[in-house]
Amino acid sequence: MTDYDVAIVGAGPAGVSAAVSLKDRGVRPLLIDRAPEVAASWRSRYDRLKLNTGRQFSHLPGRRYPRGTPTFPARDHVVEHLDRHAHEDGIDLRLHTRVERIDPCARGWRLTTSTGDVDARNVVVATGYQGVPVIPALPGSFTGETLHSSEYRNAKPYAGLRVLVVGTGSSGMEIAHDLTTGDVATVSLSVRTPPNVMRRAGPGGLPGDVLAVPLYHLPPRLADRIATSARRKTFGDLTEFGLPIPSEGPFARAHRLHVAPALVDPEVIEAVKSRAIEVVAAVTSFEGSQAALADGRRLTVDVVVFATGYRPGLEPLVGHLGVLTPEGSPIAAAPAPAADRLYFHGLVSRPSLIGYMAKQSRRLAKKIAST
Predict the structure, then answer these.
(1) Structural domains of the chain, with CATH
(2) Of 84, 74, 35, 37, nearest to 53 (Cα)?
(3) Residue range 111-148, pLDDT digits in tens
(4) What is the rounded average pLDDT for all residues in the chain?
(5) Cβ 306 vs Cβ 166: under 8 Å
């Protein structure tokens, strides 16, 4: 049994952000992760992944990226940034340790882990909102290969094959474009709900979040009018290519469902316009090598990539504590506690998320250090 003032579950952006903020306040946290390395989920993402937000809005508290880092840091830049600061003096890092359950105890909270129990006065759950990949249960059976976007790395394994990507968020659209850069036979992109598409970089190459963050705080109807006008000016009318402007704008949708728009580079939309990416209707079922689509068409494919999102997956950890909504999300976000000295940090979706988590981490650390 070990005893700490603060235990943080999850060594991704939110967990490392909270750890360095606590260290800066003179509180030595225990940072726990089930993986053998820091930022495991980032390490496993596709090769061309890069942040949708600029480096000046996407670093840990008080710790900027090194000089020479691109405006939009790539996957490996983010991993190196998190790994370096997770190993700072003043943070106890415990990897290869799965936290299986959190329960109240006399000290505060007891974490049952794969390497022994840990008691902590305060617990910060920072496992991320992309905890468990979601693949929809569709009728029928498919004889080809299926995978979630979290398993996709690059186009090489799919040379000569017909690939269908299901889902039009940032990952789905970027993976579809990445496939077109390889020797894939055909690339199709299945759309259920037309996406709100926004350009990753704004005028002059400025990160889009320079505008997205202030727009997020405007009334959604006003913000959506501005965003829709910018989309038309940037991309034109994409209706004939299967991507009409949806009836609900990006900011109204973000506030209602806590989901982000599809932030892409111009070459992704050019691939749609050139038909290198064929946009098709929603998949309703499978039969052998065919995907049945909502418009009655049948598409013969060899591989299906489901870019269909994630869920937090917090139920085994804290589902018995009454701190989750019926949908499985925390009832409160740090620095507000969901229960006495139990905090959920970073399980949100909003513009400039890493920078937002840095600000919230400092508020959380101040609260913990003062009580």
Answers:
(1) 2-131+312-369 (3.50.50.60), 134-306 (3.50.50.60)
(2) 74
(3) 999 999 999 999 999 998 777 899 999 999 999 999 99
(4) 93
(5) yes
